[in-house]
Amino acid sequence: xxxxxxxSLLILxxxxxxxxGQKKEELKKIKQETVSETKNKVDVEIFKLEKPINxxxxxxxxxxxxxxxxxxxxxxNNQELTFFKNKTEIKKVLNFYYENGDIVYKLxxxxxxxxxxxxxxxxYYSSNLGIYxxxxxxxxxxxxxxxxxxxxxxxxxxxxxxxxxxxxKEGDILKSNFYLGDKFLYEKKYNIQKKIQQxxxxxxxxxxxxxxxxxxxxxxxxxxxxxxxxxxxKDSIIFEINGYHVSQKYLxxxxxxxxxxxxxxxxxxTEFEDPQIQKIKDFGVITYDGNKYILSSPYIDINFGYGxxxxxxxxxx
Length: 317
Prior knowledge:
8-stranded antiparallel sheet
């Protein structure tokens, strides 16, 4: 009898230990899931629209918010965006030029202090839209997208509708849903870290400046002679070629390797884009020997070389 009681007690203790171990594992799993959910919630940012303090029609290139100010300075060559964040001034020369009649700003701030600025170049019927990200740690302006275009629906009868944006960020992905009134326009997703990496300068100051050369200058046919211009700045490279029935403009990226600068296409800035240009990403290499800058470019060879490989001596002007 006593032996049976002992066996029963041992079995009971074993079952209790098993139950305790199982509950411990369950509690550990619940704790891990809770931590994971909390982490995910922290990673999700919701951006809310900031209300401007003042913005007059006479000064539509400027908007003032609580703790922030946006200013767009335009010249004949470019537009410079200046963003004032409390006492910090951040400047960025934009790749896109907003030529529309009215400039409309919308500033969104997240629960983690990051900012998204929308710039709308608006006329009566259509608008160009640019998206810019201002990180709360680096205090730099990152160009996310400046290729968005939308049109108003019969504004003469219905009136112009305001652009509505729902913006959130989860991890590295910025998600934006755009509406015109109650009409859905599009959803866009962008990898912020990838955009930040693309914006980091990968070449030295020695390359900064304006360059020019003429291709086919020894040709007997003046129509084949074209002027190539390069404007290399710390945050952008503009490549232009002009001549007989030719006027093309491109935004390039660059990477410095020893005494060479490798050029690649980012975007076609020509008024009438050439769909074939996306197939020619390689815009060549600038070589500097300490005295001369020489450009060799597959883009030039394919489009304007007429079977002759071009070695262009660049004049720094």
